[in-house]
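Example 3.2
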Amino acid sequence: MIGEMTPETATKDAMTANDDCLRQLIDQAKQQQMFLEMFVRSWVDDYRCGGGTVHCGKGCRNCCSLAVHTGFAEALAVARQLSVEQGMKVADYAVKLRDLARGVSELPHYLRLHRDEMGFCPLLNEEGACGVYPVRPLTCRSLISTRESVWCGADFTKVAAAERDAFLAALDRKVVSFPSHYVAVLQESGKELEEAGAQLMRSLLGFALYGNLGVLAHLCLHHDLAGAALEGRDRAVSVIAQAGFDHPLLLTVS
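Structure, written as C-alpha cells:
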C-alpha cells in the first residue's frame, strides 16, 4: 500500500529526527561562537584605541589551567573534531578529574584542585596552542585578560598581601569582572549565549546538560552521551552515573 509506514521507515524517520536535533544544537553553537568572536574583536579594537591593553595571545596558556565548563552542544562539537590521540588525552584527563573530585563539595576547592593538580588543558598541542581553536567553546572565547598572563594562573591565596593589593588597585573596575582581571561584558555575553543554547536543548530534548568540557567530550566520545541524550533525560543521567561522573561540580542536568 502506497504511503504505508513500515518498521524500517519509522526507524529511518526517527534517526533523521535525531540527527536534526543534534544538527540544530551544533549549528546554533557555531552561530553563537561567530557572534561572540566578532563582538570580542570589536571590543578589543575599541579598548586598544582608547589606550587599553589586552594581553591575550597565542601561547599564553596560563588560563588553560583553569576548569573550562560549557554546554552539551559545544562539547559535542569539540568531541567530533578530536583525533584518536586527542581523544585518549581527554579520556585520561576526565578520569583523573573524576577521581580528584571525589569527596569535594565546594566550588572554590574544586577550582583550586583543578588548577593545582590537573595541569594544562589536554587539548593544547606541543606548541602550547589550542588544538581545537576553531571550535573552542564560548567560555574560552570570552576570557579576555587585561593583565599579564602570569596572573591568569595565579593562586591568590599564595600571593603576598602587598602584591595582591597592588594588583587589585591597578584593575580598571569599569571594564573587568572585579576582583578578576577579565573583561566583564564579554564574559556576560558568553553566559547569555550559553543560556540560549541550554534553552534550545530544553525545547528539543526536554533538559539541558552543562559541565566540564573534558568530561562532556569524553562521555560523548566513549559513552555515546549524545545517543543517550536523544533518548531522554533519564537515559543521559544513567549513562553519566554508570561512567562515574554524576558529580554536581563536574556535570549538571537541568
